[in-house]
Amino acid sequence: MWVLGKDSLVSYNELIDDAKLVIEWMLQYSPVDFGLSEGYRPPLVQFEKYKVGRQKIKGVWQVVGKVITNCDGYDVLSYHNESPAKAFDYFAWVPGKKRLMYDEVHLTAISTAAIVISHYLYDQDRISHVARSGSNWDEDGELLYDQNFDDSPHIEFYKPALKTRF
Q1: Burial annotation 126-156 (CB, 10 A radius, 16+ → b, else e)
Q2: Strand, coil or helix: what is 132?
């Protein structure tokens, strides 16, 4: 069983209850230890992230490089911008192997745990949201080629339109 560190607990406490319960289960069942790098994100912080990979040209923010978010925190909100937050960013925690913190294999193992656990708890009527990964926005299972925006170390919670069963 894994345990959240002090910094991760700050992000954990900023989340909706459904996300907290999923994380509690993830700490028991995730095959890879993990930490939380962010929960709630104020608009100003969100806007700073929005500017990454963009440049203001003739008064309009335009993409000039690799962007990390399409939400500016003001006109377009992220699930991080709600309080309590419906999203968290995470990293793999592999002692002595800092280079693996954002390794796709480790991130995928962690996000899979979040998604499966959320659907299980949702089907048991214990939560009202399910998780989706920033590496599979359209939830079709294709992780490499069809995504127009990859945010692998991101999990967000939404209310599905229909009750799902695995």
Answers
A1: ebebbbbbbbbbeeeeeeeeebeebbbbbbb
A2: strand
Residues 87, 157 contacting (CB under 8 angstroms): yes
List the chain domain ranges. Answer: 6-40+81-158, 42-77
Spatial distance between the Cα atoms of 146 and 25, rounded to a whole number of angstroms? 30
Give backbone dihedrals phi and psi of 52, rounded to 5 degrees, phi first. -65, 125
CA 154, 121, 20 angle in degrees (round to 5)? 50
Q: What pLDDT digit, counting tens, does each position of 39-79 carry?
A: 999 999 999 999 999 999 999 999 999 998 999 999 999 99
Q: Is the pTM of this model over 0.85?
A: yes
CB 157 within 8 A of CB 86: yes
Q: What is the token pair recorded at 70?
A: 């399409």
- How many whole angstroms separate alpha carbon 42 and alpha carbon 46? 6
Check whether 25 has a pLDDT greater than 80.
yes
